[in-house]
Structures are given as structure tokens and as C-alpha cells.
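hey so u asked for the seq, here:
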Amino acid sequence: MSTFFRRLSKATPIAFSHAFRGQSQSNSTHFRFPVGAIAAVSGGISYFYYFSEPNLAHLDQINEETGPKTALHPDKWIKFKLQEKAKVSHNTQLYRAPLGEDAEGKTKYVVRPYTPISDPDSKGYFDLMIKIYPEGKMSQYFSKLNPGDVVEVKGPIEKIRYTPNMKKHIGMIAGGSGITPMLQVIEAILKNPDDNTKVSLIYANVSPDDILLKKKLDMLASSHPNLKVFYTVDNPSKYWVGGTGYISKDMASKGLPSPSDDTLILVCGPPGMMEHVSGGKAKDWSQGEVSGVLKELGYTEGMVYKF
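ran it, C-alpha cells below
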């Protein structure tokens, strides 16, 4: 039995996370899921799993250097075999999943972008954390995949290019699984000793049990003085000590850097949160105008980026 399964057997089930052979990327990728397709891809693999401590991520590296190595391509679908899946939160896991046929008898697909949570410097694998929604066509399809099933991946899709010290202070507002692109930026900043960027994160969830990667975020914040994290939940538990309710103007004013040319606010979360905080993207998927809480606080289009 692999180390992954030995440790998983002792873990408290809490969402699905998947490890694929390939190269990890720091930004979004597209995933397509062909039914019944099988493709053998050799190379190194790492498994993503959680211990019983809430949302503490670990990687178990298995060195296998035989066979060809596969990298993502932004314009070409490449097959990756699902290696393992493990339950990591009560409802959590870019996909493209077949949804039957259209009027002309052609297969229909739904496409979603997704940001890996693995280190961009990792070789031979990438990890995805996906929240399962009852009516989510993509996440429901994904949750039914088993080790050995194949997904087709295309990417990365460049959204925002981060360079060290590009801003003095970066504010982040995340909701649910919208934490994944934030984690990529946070880790890129914290692993670079020459990057002096300050980061302030406000992370909103339904309940304390829904907070993904909390242990990891807390450890990063405790060991890096330039990272501050504030949590807020709609349904607090008896001993909850963070914020309560939706992200308010007061929360954002106290928890984010003030509007300036040296400030950038990143926002990622469910549509309702986006509309409340920053406004959604335009119909053509461009950034669109800033509205909501951030507009009330004086942030302009050049200071806000919506994932």
C-alpha cells in the first residue's frame, strides 16, 4: 500500500483533490473529459492529500523517471491520467466534460478554467482542488472519475502576469475555492527572498468547516510577517473568533491596502460575492467596470483584477 493510502486511512474525510501526471502551472488551464478514454502517461507523480487537521496540505513525492514527460500546451489538448483522489472537505474538487449531444448529433462540452494548487516549480504532476456542487455539471462529472480515467488538458491561460515587487501591497478577496489563484500568488511572493510585497487576504466562506487550506494559510502567515489573513463566515460556530457575515465595506477598509497606484486588489469567488465586492466581468469576459464595495472605497479599474 502506498504512503498516500496509509496516511489517508487515518485522515478525517473532509472534497476531492486530484493529482495528474504532467507539469504544474501557475495559472488557469482548461480540462476536457472524454468518456471511456484511456491513455498511459509515465513520469513522476505526487499525491495531494490532507491529514485530519483541517485543510493541511501535504505532498508525497514518488520518484519515477521512466517514460516520456508531458507538458501543458495552450492550444492543444493533452491527455493526463488521473492517479488518485482523496476526500479532503465535505464538499470540495478547467474542465471540459461531455454532456451528451446537440441537435446535430455532435458531442456537447462544458469548459471551465481551474488553477492548480501545486507549486509552479513542481515537476511531473499538478494538483487540483475542486469543490463539488449539487448542480455543478463539471464538478459532478469530475467527482465520478476514478484512478485510471483520463482527462484532456489545455493551458495555461495567462490571466495576470505577476512580477516581484510589481506593487508595494496586494490585497486579495477570495470566496470558497476562489482561494486557489490567490495561493499561487502568495506562494510566489513568499518563496522569493527579494520580493518585499505585502499581502492582505480576506477569505469568505459559508462556515468554518468550508475554509479550504486554512492550516496552510495560517502557517504561511505565522512565518511571514508580510502576509496577513482575515477570515469571515456566514454561519460561525460557537468558538469562532474571525469575522461574521458577508464582506462589508468596513472589513475591506480595515483588511485591504488603501487605493493607490502601488496597490492591486485581486478578487475571485462565486458570482454573488463578485457582484457584491467588485462587480462581475463584462459580457465579453473583459474586466469590466469596478462596482460594489471596492468602488465605494475608491478603487478604480486599474487597481482591481477579477479572476
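The longest strand covers residues 78-87. Helices lie at 3-8, 137-143, 179-190, 214-223, 249-255, 271-277, 292-296.
lmk if thats what u needed
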